[in-house]
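Lab notebook, bench 4. We co-purified these components, and the gel suggests they stay together. Before we commit to crystallization screens, I want a quick structural picture of the whole thing.
Request: model the full complex, all chains together.
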Amino acid sequence: MIIAEKKPIEEIIQEVKDFDRILILGCNECVTVCEAGGKKEVEVLASVLRMYFMNQGQEKTIGERTLERQCDHEYLEEIRNIIDDYDAIVSLACGVGVQFAAEKYLTMPLLPGVNTICLGANEDRGLWTERCQACGTCVLARTGGICPVSRCAKRVLNGPCGGSTNGKCEISKDTDCAWQLIIDRLKALDKMDDYEKVAPVKDWSTDRAGGPRTVTREDVKI
Amino acid sequence: MRLKIPTNFRIIRLPCTGKIDIIHILRAFEKGADGLYVVGCMEGDCHFNEGNFRARKRVEQAARMLDQVGVGGERVKMYNLSSGEGPLFAQYSIEMVNKIKQMGPSPIRLAKERMKQKADAA
Amino acid sequence: MSEYVSNSRLERVLKAGHLGVTSECGPPRGSDPEEVKKKGLLIKDHVDAVNVTDNQTAMTRMSSLAACIHLKLLGIEPVLQMVTRDRNRVALQSDILGAASFDIPNMLCLSGDHQSFGDCAQGQNVHDLDSMQLVQTVRYMRDEGKFLGGDDIKRPPKIFVGAAANPFADPFEIRVPRLAKKIACGAEFIQTQCIYNIDKFKEWIRRAADRGLTEKTFIMAGMTPMKSVGMAKYMKNKVPGMDVPEEIIARLAGVEKKKQAEEGINICVEHIQELKEIPGVAGFHIMAIEWEEKVPEIVERSGLYPRPEI
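Here is the predicted assembly.
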């Protein structure tokens, strides 16, 4: 899923301070699971903002709403009838949701309430870690199912680099060396012979480098 | 055992302090409470193993948020005692009430009163 | 490995069966060319070629290519180091051609330390290619006379291509397969990480020799003299992928502070003398970090001077 992290309250206050009627808009998908932008986080942010501005002697309307998703037209349409009640929206969805809402409601200021971090997994309670960078050309079949693009700090396709120490990355003792994980997996799969196959120069045109990416499916289109 | 406790606070009973959420604490202040404290079982004695530890984390987080918005994180506190310690409960309630009295009314309550006066005057 | 692929002196020395000697020169953190020239002239007569580092430890410095040109114009043979951290395939190929236009005859392909170690920790990194793919790229440009994109190169680069190897990084069991991979990509010479754990290095090169790898490439053993016991401890604890045995630290700690540098040189010379006899060791890469003036002494005392006339 998409992993996000709450923005500091001070930053959100700075962004919204000039608006009188603010809608805090949550999303029921990824950001709910990673506890950054679901219904509960909407309630908390709204309460905190209300108290802050009350304390400042400013009367503001701070509304709360959480949509099933912010990356689909039909759910975003649900706020069309209330949108005129507000001067700005703080979206707690990932960057996708914020933009999709901005595109739909052209004259409505849309402010992000979270920082979108990565595509990751819920590794443990309170711990979310990156697993994919959406490079568009998956190499996992050749790397024992462990991704060198997202999990190696140098995205080395023929690793490990010389900085691998005791299974950890040179950038931090808390970061696993992706290539150590790959080698462990290749050994477990009895596929160490594959290690010596040289990964060719990668086509990064399917990555960010190629510009905004789209998937078009004629068979799905109506 | 009859113990004197202050009368200016309201007790909200929970099945376990682990049930408390940050929003409960924030709402109390939003509605004008001057202080709030959570009384859980002794650490290590939670019937649900870690309910009171979770409560403590949430209280701490709520305190940080109250600091950030200028209400004052010291207005919330977590206490632990066992169910047989009535006198200690009384002592904690007196301690908390005295502390809040010292700090004075919550700025949110004052702000609400000012706004009400303004609205009445208008 | 009989015919020459470049005009590299280093290539000729190694192919003639002599022990090669290279050293290292870190470009300055400024634009004064005299610093590079001074370092180069200090070691000129005692080495076959001088590696010029490419923003080592991710600290911004004078460009490796520019510093190489300064050395080349003084008649000192450079080894252009290139990391894949800062440049994409366009820039890498372009710099390779730039180097070749000055007839810089050697290149060492590296991935580079992560930028978080340097002065631009908030910067992007590139890593369009990795170090092995960079080796493949230079070889392709030289041998096929083509760009990665497939177009012909007018006057292809004539460059003797090297790569680095760390016999001590983890996991140890892939250290030799990894060397094999670099050789398969086209690395003609290898310069290793600083060696302090002699036994582990011998084990590594024995395993490499068993697979016939020492016949396919020239392995130059990396040597860095310790200036003090403090440096030894730092190298052991702070530098990723470095293996400094306790006895080295104990030996340096055993002499008085003023004599630790001298003892560091003694250890270095002893190690070179020991490794000279090991089959598969084709030469030495002496990295005296900000201590270039000691290189001549180390080379002389190790019996590697004078350098052969080629």
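Residues 69 and 102 of chain C are 7 Å apart (CA to CA). Worth comparing against the SEC data before the next meeting. The radius of gyration of chain C is 19 Å.
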